[in-house]
Amino acid sequence: SNLFPVKYVSISHNYTVGGLRRITHIKAVVAKVLIETDEPVYAVKRERLLFPIGRFWTVLTTPELKYAFARGHIKAVTDCVVYEQEVIFKSYVDKFYALRQEFKASGNAEYEELCKKMLNSLYGKFGQKGDDWKKIGDCAGESDREEMVLDMRTHRLSKLRYLLGQVFRMTGHGECFDSFPAIAAHVTAYARLHLWSLMQAVGWGNYFYCDTDSLIVNEKGLECLKSHIHNTSLGGLKVAMTSSHVTIQGLKDYSIGEKKVIKGIRKTAVCVGEGIYEQEQWSSFRGLLRSGQPEDYVVKTITKHLNRDYKKGDVTDTGVVLPYVFDATDREYMKELGYILPNSMLLVQGGLIQELDDDTILKNISMGDIHPDYAQTYLDAVLTKPASQDIMAYELRQENKLANLPKELKKIGIHPDYTKLYDTLAYQIPPVADIITMAVREAFTPAIAEKFGQYQDFPDDLKKYA
Where is the DNA-directed DNA polymerase family B mitochondria/virus domain (predicted)? Predict the structure, then answer.
């Protein structure tokens, strides 16, 4: 029964607080506002999504604006986009939720899961982003792959994709066709406010962790939520599990009793050390293109190192997380958080073009979310290595035995099992025409040539040197 934006009406850069309050009663709105609050309920997107308190600018949707107006939290407004609004998901949700309950009652777990995914994933399609690709030519015979190309004239980096005999250049990354981010933003806003209302019902100190659609609470908290618990009612809560022991490491990283939940770590992963896991990695289509060998599907074993630094609030000595406080004294800090850093790969490439020293490049890598202990390893991996042909040519010039070839090939990722192959290929075979010429010179003596009249009437000196 919630209302969602369906049609763009107008955009304004000079709304008043009073005007914004009035328009939220009749239209759907997305607005940039100045908030002053003691509740960590308003999302602020910096390098990551934060829920601070204090005084700060952020972008809110209709349900969040109504909540903020009811508590006097909005102090100013700048940009505002207005939409017509309607109930748009009711028939879809009713249909799939009823189907899900039917499949659950009949024990059809696969179809029940399918209905669950249809219900949970629809909203995200309205906010989906994707790469924009432009065809720039044909490339018959080229293998399917993706590669990065640096234009030495403009110093611009481009991504090319070779696919089915055609070559494409990535021109940007933005909204997908038929997207409507305001709808997705309203869905997540409604969900966050509902979760916040449940946390308020539980009371401070009775909840330990919240996720997208769940809470970890104590017995008192469970008692407070009894009226919300219903296993089959749409939007109702259910008790997933109980335990006398909970360990919370961070975001989507916790254990309840014997059950462990770690985002990005498979259930079949093997723990080889504190925060270190080994697991299989199955390549996506894009991953196969990046590998340069899409015809070979290889399941790799990778090692993951967990970074358990919590950066969405201040963790006290007792383990309680307090929200960040944004206020006038934090203005420079807020300004710094407002910038989005390039990823570590781009920081390395830019640093090399700018001829920065290695220490500065390593520092920039760490700023891009790579752990400082692994910055040098990351840099070594990113720097371009010579092609295998160049390494073989160089080693041949150093010595004929190629004793150092296996070591150098391994540095650029050649598996030791294939070193012998490169050892053999290092010695070039003459072209076929040269081989034929050499064979003819060996077998085609002057005596044989004379029978064919090859040297007839030739001067003796020419015969000699023929």
Answer: 40-134
Is the pLDDT at 331 greater than 60, yes or no? no
For the segment 292-317, the average pLDDT, to the nearest whole number, is 86
CA 362 – CA 366 distance, rounded (Å): 7
Least confident of 5-9, 204-208, 358-362: 358-362
- From 354-363, 422-431, 457-466, the region with the lowest mean pLDDT: 457-466
Query: Pseudo-torsion of CA 451, 457, 461, 462, nearest 10°?
Result: -70
